[in-house]
Design a protein that fits this description.
This protein is mainly alpha-helical. It is built from four helices and two strands; from the N terminus they run E-E-H-H-H-H. Helix 2 runs antiparallel to helix 3.
């Protein structure tokens, strides 16, 4: 038998984030989507908020929204959800790593901006927290 895709990731380079487009979509679920769907809606909403904050260069709130999405994904504790949780958390961690790299460049070197130092520290702390939980 062929394997079914459980989820789909939308990874498009766009200038704005469409509030109707989800980063993660559930295509198949052993729990018949009821439990996962509520969590996934919350995760996608927080992910969307994080992207919108990022567009506005509000890094601190973007990081906080990603942390909230990560925590929401971690609430799915059913054994049949484990693969989805790993993917959700990896997707969120990748986004946070991208923000961290961007902030690292902006807070170091000759043209560094102290304005973003707090956000850089917050992103480093969040990444450490994520790695300790995985």
């Amino acid at each position: 038998m062929g394997k079914k895709n459980l989820i789909s990731l939308n990874d498009r380079d766009i200038d704005f984030i469409d509030s109707n487009e989800n980063k993660i979509e559930l295509l198949s679920c052993q729990l018949e989507v009821q439990k996962c769907n509520k969590h996934l809606m919350a995760i996608n909403k927080r992910y969307l908020n994080a992207n919108n904050y990022l567009i506005e260069k509000d890094y601190l709130n973007s990081i906080r929204s990603l942390k909230s999405a990560y925590n929401k994904a971690s609430e799915l504790r059913d054994s049949s959800c484990s693969k989805c949780v790993v993917l959700f958390r990896k997707t969120i961690t990748n986004s946070l790593e991208n923000i961290n790299q961007e902030l690292s460049v902006m807070t170091s070197g000759v043209f560094r901006k102290k304005l973003y130092q707090q956000s850089y520290v917050e992103s480093c702390n969040a990444l450490k927290e994520f790695k300790n939980r995985d």
